[in-house]
Q: What sequence folds into this?
């Protein structure tokens, strides 16, 4: 099974992706994580991506599509994967259709008013766990692995506003795209707790 996770920044894609990946044994491919790893490693892709990410814009399609196309040829992608953060516009979706067979697009819908607070209050760990400051009770380390938590560089109000604009203009039209293909499944209660949202996803995935 090959799945796309769709949703605005802050909709909880990363959190749900970890849960889905472990329950359904799917490879989790996050383009955002790939770019962040490249930025940390100081690669050419990282240098290019940083300026776009800092501005809340999309990294150019040719670069992004090539990364995903290559990644899907690895052996570990053969038995099913979940794309988190890709595709993010119609061009990428059309390109993806040329090199992959997607079974389902899971759209996590969250009230826009909540997104800004969710993202600006987000603290993440290098192990992939994600928290909201309101639930941390002052803790600064990850409950799962003990590493220090940090705030993503692009999780600041100015960049988040640009990311939400980018989502509304470029990514949201994909909901229609996958609906027309008969592949869309919507999680309508994305405002719930991570476990509540995952319950809904399990009902969809069976
Ligand atoms: P994310 O971790 O999914 O929120 O992605 C962080 C940032 O990486 C986005 O705001 C974009 O700048 C960039 N990015 C991630 N995925 C893509 C994509 N599919 N196409 C272009 N840029 C992307």
A:
């Amino acid at each position: 099974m090959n799945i796309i996770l769709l949703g605005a920044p802050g909709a909880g894609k990363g959190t749900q992706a970890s849960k889905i990946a472990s329950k359904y044994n799917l490879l989790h491919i996050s383009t955002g994580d790939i770019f962040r790893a490249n930025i940390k490693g100081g690669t050419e892709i990282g240098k290019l991506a940083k300026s776009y990410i800092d501005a809340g814009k999309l990294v150019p399609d040719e670069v992004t599509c090539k990364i995903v196309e290559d990644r899907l040829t690895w052996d570990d992608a053969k038995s099913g994967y979940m794309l988190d953060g890709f595709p993010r516009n119609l061009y990428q979706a059309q390109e993806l259709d040329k090199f992959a067979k997607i079974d389902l697009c899971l759209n996590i819908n969250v009230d826009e008013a909540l997104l800004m607070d969710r993202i600006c209050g987000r603290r993440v760990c290098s192990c992939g766990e994600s928290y909201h400051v309101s639930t941390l009770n002052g803790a600064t380390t990850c409950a799962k692995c003990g590493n220090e938590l940090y705030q993503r560089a692009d999780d600041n109000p100015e960049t988040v506003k640009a990311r939400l604009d980018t989502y509304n203009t470029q990514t949201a039209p994909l909901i229609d795209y996958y609906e027309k293909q008969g592949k869309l499944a919507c999680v309508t209660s994305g405002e719930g707790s991570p476990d509540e949202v995952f319950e809904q996803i399990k009902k969809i995935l069976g």
Observations:
- The radius of gyration is 16 Å.
